[in-house]
Each structure stands twice: as structure tokens, then as C-alpha cells.
């Protein structure tokens, strides 16, 4: 696989960071929403399908997934307990508390049964995992997806551009603050057995954002 930067902060440091910024996270992540929304549109979850969001954060996508999947149950996992608590409140306000099951944990070791989900959604999260962990996480996705399941990924895409080089410089100098980095989403998915159904690339503050749908 092509070379990408490493993520050097520990999982515990990541948990502490996201717990600490949970109250303000929606402000920081506001620019990501339109890309996540497009990813959800491309994932095209249907009524009755069972879905999982990895890195569900404060629950914006969970609301959309739960509404689309009704009456099926939607699941969400995030490393931050405080982010999960905010997601629970958001779902309660939306009247969807009983439609979603949330878990705090590390997605490289999912607790769900084999071939359980119709769809998985990962938005601005895959690039938070260290390089050796990305295939582990994606193989877990393969395991828990049904034979006809699909995976939607929204992620920063690595390219040879000034914007990406500047961003990676900040990632190297301030890994606790800028804890994600651009990756190669298509290569990551295909190397773990996914077949690419659709891909779009857009720009966010000059950085390429890849939206990919992979089939098991």
C-alpha cells in the first residue's frame, strides 16, 4: 500500500481528547456535515436495513440512519463516552432513543455477530486510526457485514498538493491536536476485499475529501 503518515497518539489519549472537546465538537466539525450528508445519500440505507456507524460522535448521522432504517435498529460505536452521552441526548430529543443502540469502545474489535449488518458508515474516522489498524478495522467490517452488505467511507484523501503537505506538517508537529491525516480510502478498501461501487472527491478548505461506497 502507498505510504501514509502514522498516528502516534495512543487510544487513551484519543479518548481523553474527544471527551474533553465533546461539548464543542459540533462547532469544530460543522464543515464536515455536508460531506457526511452526501456519504449518507450515497449509502442509500433502506427501511428495514440494519446499520452501524463507526465513530458516531455526537450522533448527527445516527439520526439520519435511524430515520432511513426504521423500523430496523441502528447501532453506533465511539471511543468517547462523553461524545456518546451527547449522541444519546440528541437521539432522545429526536424521539429515536429506542431506535439506536450505542456502545463505547474500540472499533478494531467489534462485539457484533458475523454477517449482522446490511450497511456500515464511517465518516471522518478511518483516518484517525494508525496505519496498521486500518486493515484490521476494515476486516472487522467485512466480518460483520452480510454477504450483500456495503460500506460507506468519508475520509480525507491523500494527494500531492500544497494543502495536503501543510496539513501533514501540522499533523506531524501537533499530533494530539491534528490527530487525523489524509489516507488512500480506495486502496484501503480494495486491499481488504471490498469492491468499489461509487466514489466522489470534493474539496474542504482545499483538502480533498473522498466519499466511497464499497461492496463486500
Automatic annotation (TrEMBL):
<keyword id="KW-0808">Transferase</keyword>
<dbReference type="GO" id="GO:0008168">
    <property type="term" value="F:methyltransferase activity"/>
</dbReference>
<keyword id="KW-0489">Methyltransferase</keyword>
<protein>
    <submittedName>
        <fullName>Methyltransferase domain-containing protein</fullName>
    </submittedName>
</protein>
<dbReference type="Pfam" id="PF13649">
    <property type="entry name" value="Methyltransf_25"/>
</dbReference>
<dbReference type="InterPro" id="IPR029063">
    <property type="entry name" value="SAM-dependent_MTases_sf"/>
</dbReference>
<dbReference type="InterPro" id="IPR050508">
    <property type="entry name" value="Methyltransf_Superfamily"/>
</dbReference>
<feature type="domain" description="Methyltransferase">
    <location>
        <begin position="52"/>
        <end position="149"/>
    </location>
</feature>
<dbReference type="InterPro" id="IPR041698">
    <property type="entry name" value="Methyltransf_25"/>
</dbReference>
<dbReference type="GO" id="GO:0032259">
    <property type="term" value="P:methylation"/>
</dbReference>
Amino acid at each position: 500500500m502507498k505510504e501514509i503518515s502514522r498516528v502516534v497518539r495512543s487510544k487513551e489519549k484519543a479518548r481523553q481528547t474527544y471527551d474533553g472537546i465533546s461539548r464543542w465538537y459540533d462547532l469544530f466539525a460543522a464543515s464536515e456535515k455536508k460531506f457526511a450528508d452526501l456519504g449518507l445519500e450515497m449509502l442509500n440505507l433502506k427501511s428495514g436495513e440494519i446499520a452501524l456507524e463507526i465513530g458516531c460522535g455526537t450522533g448527527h448521522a445516527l439520526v439520519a440512519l435511524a430515520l432511513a432504517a426504521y423500523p430496523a435498529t441502528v447501532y453506533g460505536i465511539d471511543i468517547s463516552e462523553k461524545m456518546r452521552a451527547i449522541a444519546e441526548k440528541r437521539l432522545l430529543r429526536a424521539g429515536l432513543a429506542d431506535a439506536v443502540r450505542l456502545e463505547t469502545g474500540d472499533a478494531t474489535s467489534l462485539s457484533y455477530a458475523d454477517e449482522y449488518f446490511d450497511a456500515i458508515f464511517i465518516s471522518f474516522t478511518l483516518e484517525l486510526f494508525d496505519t496498521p489498524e486500518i486493515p484490521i478495522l476494515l476486516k472487522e467490517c467485512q466480518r460483520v457485514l452480510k454477504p450483500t452488505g456495503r460500506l460507506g467511507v468519508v475520509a480525507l484523501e491523500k494527494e500531492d498538493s500544497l494543502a495536503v503537505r501543510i496539513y501533514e506538517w501540522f499533523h506531524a508537529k501537533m499530533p494530539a491536536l491534528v490527530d487525523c491525516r489524509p489516507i488512500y480510502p480506495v486502496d484501503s478498501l480494495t486491499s481488504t476485499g471490498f469492491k468499489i461501487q461509487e466514489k466522489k472527491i470534493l474539496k474542504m478548505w482545499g483538502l480533498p475529501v473522498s466519499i466511497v461506497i464499497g461492496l463486500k
